[in-house]
Design brief:
alpha+beta, 3-stranded antiparallel beta sheet, 3-stranded mixed beta sheet, 143 residues
Length: 143
């Protein structure tokens, strides 16, 4: 398989608990902190937010591709990604995700079709398929 692009980041320090994330090209540089909801200090991003951001951006690209393949003109696109850190009774951590897709310029049936197609196309969706619980909800909206 040919490589299209490799994103390179370095995480230093304590990782999610006060670490620093830096991309090799310098375009991403941010601190990490455990969210207040988990008893941490908060005040910085966390791995779940970064994962959700990457997945959401990729997913919208897949929606646009699916729409173009169907010659569908979208008037607006938005996706809200919830990446949830979970744990079981044994203290083992995992992830689950919900993707709420809102599409303008289409009816509900087409919104659902495009959401399902994007979930098949998106590399993040492919990487998580069968590994974590994922729900994709698509809605047609005005605009």
């Amino acid at each position: 398989m040919a490589v299209s692009y490799t994103g390179v980041v370095t995480v230093t320090g304590e990782g999610r608990n006060g670490g620093q994330v830096t991309a090799s090209d310098g375009l991403l540089s941010t601190a990490l902190a455990i969210p207040k909801a988990l008893g941490g200090a908060g005040g910085a991003t966390n791995p779940e937010q970064l994962f959700a951001a990457g997945w959401g951006a990729c997913f919208l690209g897949a929606v646009r591709r699916a729409a173009a393949e169907r010659k569908v003109r979208l008037t607006s696109t938005a996706v809200t990604v919830e990446a949830t850190l979970t744990h079981d009774d044994d203290g083992e951590f995992g992830l689950s995700a919900v993707l709420d897709l809102e599409l303008g310029g289409v009816d509900q049936a087409m919104a659902e079709e495009l959401g399902a197609a994007a979930h098949r196309l998106c590399p993040y969706s492919k990487a998580t398929r069968g590994n974590i619980p994922v729900t994709v909800r698509a809605s047609a909206v005005a605009g």
